Amino acid sequence: MRILPITSLEHPELQDYSRLTDVALRRKLEPAGGLYMAESEKVVARAIAAGHVPRSMLLQEKFLPQAERLLIDHPDTPVFVGSEELLEQLTGYRMHRGVLAAMHRPELPSAASVLANAKTVLVLEDIVDHTNVGAAFRNAAGLGADAVLVTERCADPLYRRSVRVSMGTVLQVPWTRLPSWQESRELFHEHSFEVAGLALDEHAVPLQDYARQRPERVALLLGTEGDGLTRRALEAADRTVIIPMLHGVDSLNVAATSAVALYALLNN
């Protein structure tokens, strides 16, 4: 294992870990640099098991046994070791989950290849909260969705917080980004998917009724935390579905909605 004690924060490869709490900065740097962050032994293990390649690792000395277990097949990966105070100064937060790895970002598959053998997919439109994205992926994995598709303006599923909240399942569930809604609607129909949008719509079908008569292939479409689905997304939907609410509550959090809807569709 290639252990490199940190003597200076100016080392070029340490820039991958600089200011990790600056979301705006990381949105620009991580996709452009072709990397993402995997945090904790479990998440890094899932990333490596998925075929993703670590380009370096950052940790305190006490977590070296974790790195040794993870890097059996990647012995030349640089492992930067520093004190808790030094790592906090570098990253902007207190590292207490063990290893942190900068991973090479894999090339996304085409939407057509993701849909080819799927029957139930979750579509996230313009969701900006990384926690909700990660939770939706965890729900998709746990409840048995075949894939997740996200729009161009949706938060990055490989952002550090998304990966952590998903418990690494974002590294297991097939996913990719969609093109424009016009192209996407044609793509779904070419693969015999019915697009069902979760929306507060007077013509919406109650979820339990829709689940009882669901078509073979369904793309379940969820919108932003505040405004829900955009007009273009609703135009692309073949029908709208609603989860009936009580006590004056009009809707659930988007992550909770994904769990309820997937459970209904996959357990009817």
Automatic annotation (TrEMBL):
One Pfam family per UniProt: SpoU_methylase
GO biological process terms held by the UniProt record: methylation
Coiled coil: none
Keywords (A to Z) from UniProt: Methyltransferase, Transferase
Organism superkingdom: Bacteria
Protein name: RNA methyltransferase
Organism: Gulosibacter sediminis
Transmembrane segments: none
Domain tRNA/rRNA methyltransferase SpoU type: 120-263
MF-aspect GO terms: methyltransferase activity
InterPro entries xrefs: Alpha/beta_knot_MTases, Ribosomal_eL30-like_sf, rRNA_Methyltransferase, SpoU_MeTrfase, tRNA_m1G_MTases_N
CDD domains cross-referenced by the UniProt entry: SpoU-like_rRNA-MTase (cd18095)
